[in-house]
User: Fold this.
Amino acid sequence: MNHKELSLKDIQQESLKILIKIHEICQKENLTYYLAYGSLIGAIRNNGIIPWDDDIDIMMPRTDYDKLEVYFCKHKEELAPLQMFGPKLDERYPYMINRISNHDYVIDTENEENYGLGIFIDIYPLDALGNTLKEAEKRKGRSCRLASLCFLSTRLAFTKGNTKSTLKLLFKLPAFYFSKIMGKKHYFNVLERISKEQRYSDADYVGCIVWASDDGNKGVFKKKWLGTGKLHQFEDYEFYIPDDYDSILKKLYGDYMVPPPESEWIAHHFYKAYRRK
Assistant:
């Protein structure tokens, strides 16, 4: 590729511009969102993006998540070069979470087909998990296994990836071939059915059913922890974080205020970004 590769700082700044626009839309449309995962740690620990992070994550209650998708479809022309990718919007798209991408850029991603994505922000839908912790952990555990297989079904080749456990790696190879036989549409359909088993408004526990990166039960949150959200500094702006962010981050990461050793200061995506000609 003849384009000049963007630096990590460039990627972070362009991702931030996308977040600013999402915030504006959510304010205008009265939609709830929260900074999530590494971006939430960054907000609390760094008042901004973690220096080695290569994307921004937000999460939204399913109803608001769906409304944002509809908004992007209705305002496609005026929102350009921003574009929403999702399983209902593009058959080539390999994930069950939506992404908002800037089409002025292109990314070269390892081990997946090119579907036109540029610099992006991940949007995780929050669905109902149940009214008891036992029920929530059971549903999350089931969906986590399915989401892992869904991810494997979209990989071009088998790789170790981020798998650190030797035991998990032993199971990963047969799981990869099994997932290829079943196909991503199978997992999309099953995960979507699970996400609709209970309404978000009726549940005491919530989480992202369609993604497995939060290691199962760690991604089970009391809905009251999220609340209506509150503004917090993130770079030179303010964005929404959960009301009880501390409980969420401790559940996910333990002592999140202690940075990892410097040897782990690496981006977790495997891609290069370029400005599109």
